[in-house]
Design a protein that fits this description.
Structural class: alpha/beta
Bound molecules: pyridoxal-5'-phosphate
Strand order of the largest sheet: 1-9-8-7-4-2-3
Oligomer: single chain
CATH architecture of the largest domain: 3-Layer(aba) Sandwich
Strand content: 15-25%
Distance between the termini: 47 Å
Helix content: 40-55%
Shape: globular
Largest sheet: 7 strands, mixed
Order of helices and strands: HHEHEHEHEEEHEHEEHHHEEHEEH
CATH superfamily of the largest domain: Type I PLP-dependent aspartate aminotransferase-like (Major domain)
Radius of gyration: 21 Å
CATH class of the largest domain: Alpha Beta
Length: about 350
């Protein structure tokens, strides 16, 4: 609908101009979040690239060139560009592409002391984190840990960046996961669900921080094009409705309980973690390393599950999946598990 409508008007304009869908979407994101400024890009990696560049540029503007270090976390995933695989905490994505950009350190997720050991007022420009680590196992940050990070960043004049490419746009039952934690970042990146299948991404920030990315310092040809923004507008207008977010939490409970029950019956899951409709079913000792087998067995029965690392079966269904589909998916998954466990 939104795509078709916009396709009959304007697709793209010269970057010397802006366009109405982009302005409208920026206003909507501003109204629904902490943000005062929005930068549009085409993918999650690009939004993160912009975030990391902004953090360095902001520190350069206000404190000088020595304050350029970025702290991120082991097992983090932030995208596939050279800067984002370097900030990401999985060596396998960097292998063969080195030398990596410098000044990047990796702390242990959910371990504030490991951040304290790396952070400094003179050198650290930003700490970047996924509120729930997605690719590496659906690992939620402890609320106290995120609050501690906020404090550490404030004490050290460092920016706090939330990569909400996976957790954003209703996925956790909140428009953005930072609301669930009550911890407000300085920069937030959003993609994936933002376009509902169309490539679009956004970097959200405050007016003070955003000022360091003035016209000419960073840019994108297609970022903020009219088609992408019209689609994302429809997505945000829909997903931000309280009934939709409430529905995510109800579906979450149903799915979580169903998976936990199957987990107990067959001794396959030790825990179902995550939030909203981003759930990670953690395999028991006996099944460790076999997440992919569950994906394959599920496909045989016509139900699609994802993996997050080798030890976690990840579920991330549509935010408006009918409850009857959840029932059917659970039945099919149980059939798949039964066959695997034989
Ligand atoms: C998927 C993902 C990205 C990368 O997004 P792309 O659109 O594939 O570039 C970055 N960060 C997180 C947390 C992701 O899950």
């Amino acid at each position: 609908g939104a795509l078709q409508e916009q396709s009959e008007k304007v697709w793209h304009l010269s970057n010397v101009m802006t366009n109405e869908p982009a302005l409208r979407l920026a206003k909507t994101l501003r109204d629904h979040t902490f943000a005062e400024r929005v930068f549009f890009a085409n993918s999650g990696a690009e939004a993160n690239e912009a975030a990391f560049k902004l953090a360095r540029r902001y520190a350069w503007d206000h404190f000088g060139p020595d304050k350029h270090e970025i702290i991120s976390f082991k097992n983090a995933f932030h995208g596939r560009t050279l800067f984002t695989v370097s900030v990401g905490g999985q060596q396998k994505y960097l292998e063969g592409f080195e030398p990596a950009p410098g000044g990047i350190h990796h702390a242990d997720f959910n371990d504030l002391d490991s951040v304290k050991a790396l952070i400094s007022k003179e050198k650290t420009c930003a700490v970047v984190i996924e509120p729930i680590q997605g690719e590496s196992g659906v690992v939620p940050a402890d609320p106290e840990f995120l609050k501690g990070l906020r404090q550490l960043c404030d004490d050290n004049d460092a920016l706090l960046i939330f990569d909400e490419v996976q957790t954003g746009v209703g996925r956790t039952g909140h428009l953005y996961a930072y609301e669930m934690y009550g911890v407000i970042p300085d920069i937030l990146t959003s993609a994936k669900g933002l376009g509902g299948g169309f490539p679009v991404a956004a970097m959200l920030t405050t007016a003070k921080v955003g000022a360091s990315l003035a016209v000419g310092t960073h840019g994108s040809t297609y970022g903020g094009n009219a088609l992408a923004c019209a689609v994302a507008q429809k997505v945000i207008d829909t997903v931000s409705q309280p009934e939709i977010l409430k529905g995510v939490n109800e579906r979450s409970e149903k799915l979580r309980q169903g998976m936990m029950a199957i987990g107990e019956r067959y001794g396959i899951f030790s825990e179902v973690r995550g939030a909203g409709l981003l759930l990670g079913c953690v395999l028991t000792e006996q099944w460790k390393g076999r997440a992919k087998d569950f994906l394959a067995a599920g496909l045989e029965e016509g139900v699609m599950v994802l993996v997050a690392g080798a030890d976690v079966v990840r579920l991330a269904p549509s935010l408006i999946i009918p409850e009857t589909d959840i029932d059917e998916a659970l039945e099919r998954f149980e059939t798949a598990v039964k066959k695997l466990a034989q």
